[in-house]
């Protein structure tokens, strides 16, 4: 045994009746990488990545700095497109359709696949305007609907109680943990299918981190979460599946308990026991 997973059962209690993963079929795969390769100019950053992400599950991606975690996450909603010199081969199938075709609707796909970054990045505007920004882009203009979306999104992100009396105040006045939950609420406001999170608690204190972890656990009832984290305990606590990456390759991918308690690959074991990285 490599790492005993503590606290996981505590978080799992409410989720007792969820489907047994092993019974899940191909239909439960919401997004999938097939033979995905990526280069930044001549340097290859992703090598033959094959990975399937299940609906309503949390998948953690772990691995040492520079192994390609953020690059992989960005591939899942075509955020690497804006990086000059970046070239991609292979497929990312979202609900069965390749994101990387000429006729793929990038704007719609970005709405369906939201991203949360390491550093909370609220827009320098009011809390209300942050939440309604996305819906307005998608042509929702009715005030009543926008107010409903704001309340619903903030409640889903467990921030409503703290901000309901200050919706017109600047989002920049919120604490770091509140700002990160605001960013999650902003992503939820456009009704995504998947939330990509790149080290979402790396800049937060332990209390704010716990709130985000509890929130992620709630979110998976309705959404699929893919999270990059350097925190092994966090990956073990909140994820159903874990993928370990090293030097651009997916070395091992499986059930979180198996990865942390009984990894198949020596590199995985070395990493999660802190022997490198
Ligand atoms: N915009 C870019 N241009 C050129 N090379 C890049 C770019 N972004 C990342 N890389 C390179 O690609 C490789 C993978 O980087 P990536 O940021 O995906 O790693 P990571 O696993 O997220 O690391 P960390 O844990 O430090 O965030 C690294 O060698 C990095 O230097
Ligand atoms: Mg990164």
Number of strands: 10
Question: What is the N-to-C succession of helices and strands?
Answer: HEEEHEEHEHHHHEHEHEEHH
Considering DSSP H and I runs of 4 or more, what fraction of the residues is helical?
Answer: 25-40%
The distinct ligands, each listed once, are: adenosine-5'-triphosphate, magnesium ion
Shape summary: globular
Biggest sheet character: 6 strands, mixed
Mean of residue pLDDT? Answer: 90
Rg estimate, integer Å: 19 Å
Low-confidence stretches: 9-23
Q: What is the overall number of helices?
A: 11
Proportion of residues in β-strands: 15-25%
Going across the major beta sheet, what is the strand order? 6-7-8-3-9-10
Given helix and strand content, the structural type is: alpha/beta
Oligomer class: single chain
Distance from N terminus to C terminus (CA atoms, Å) equals: 20 Å
Question: How would the blueprint of this fold be written?
Answer:
Layout: H1 8-12, E1 29-40, E2 43-54, E3 58-62, H2 69-75, E4 86-94, E5 97-98, H3 106-112, E6 113-116, H4 127-137, H5 143-156, H6 160-163, H7 176-188, E7 194-198, H8 206-219, E8 224-228, H9 232-238, E9 241-246, E10 249-255, H10 256-261, H11 266-272
Parallel strand pairs: 3-8, 3-9, 6-7, 7-8
Antiparallel strand pairs: 1-2, 1-4, 4-5, 9-10
The chain binds adenosine-5'-triphosphate and magnesium ion.
Adenosine-5'-triphosphate is lined by residues 40, 45, 63, 65-71, 83.
């Amino acid at each position: 045994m490599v790492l005993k997973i503590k606290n996981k059962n505590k978080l799992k209690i409410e989720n007792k009746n969820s489907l047994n993963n092993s019974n899940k079929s191909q239909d439960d795969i919401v997004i999938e990488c097939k033979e995905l390769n990526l280069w930044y100019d001549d340097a290859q950053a992703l090598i033959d990545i094959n990975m399937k992400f299940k609906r309503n599950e949390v998948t953690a991606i772990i691995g040492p700095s520079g192994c390609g975690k953020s690059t992989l996450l960005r591939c899942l909603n075509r955020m690497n497109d804006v990086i000059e010199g970046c070239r991609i081969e292979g497929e990312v199938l979202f609900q069965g359709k390749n994101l990387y075709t000429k006729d793929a609707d990038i704007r719609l796909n970005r709405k369906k696949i939201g991203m949360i970054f390491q550093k909370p990045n609220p827009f320098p505007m009011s809390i209300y305007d942050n939440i309604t920004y996305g819906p307005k882009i998608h042509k929702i203009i009715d005030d009543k609907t926008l107010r409903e979306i704001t309340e619903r999104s903030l409640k889903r992100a467990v921030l409503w109680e703290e901000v309901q009396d200050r919706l017109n105040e600047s989002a920049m006045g919120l604490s770091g943990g509140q700002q990160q939950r605001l960013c999650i609420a902003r992503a939820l406001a456009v009704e995504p299918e998947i939330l990509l999170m790149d080290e979402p608690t790396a800049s937060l204190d332990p209390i704010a981190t716990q709130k985000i972890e509890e929130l992620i656990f709630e979110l998976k009832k309705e959404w699929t979460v893919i999270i990059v984290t350097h925190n092994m305990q966090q990956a073990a606590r909140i994820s159903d599946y874990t993928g370990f990456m090293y030097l651009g390759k997916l070395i091992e991918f499986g059930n979180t308990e198996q990865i942390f308690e009984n990894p198949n690959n020596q590199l995985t074991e070395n990493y999660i026991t802190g022997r490198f990285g």
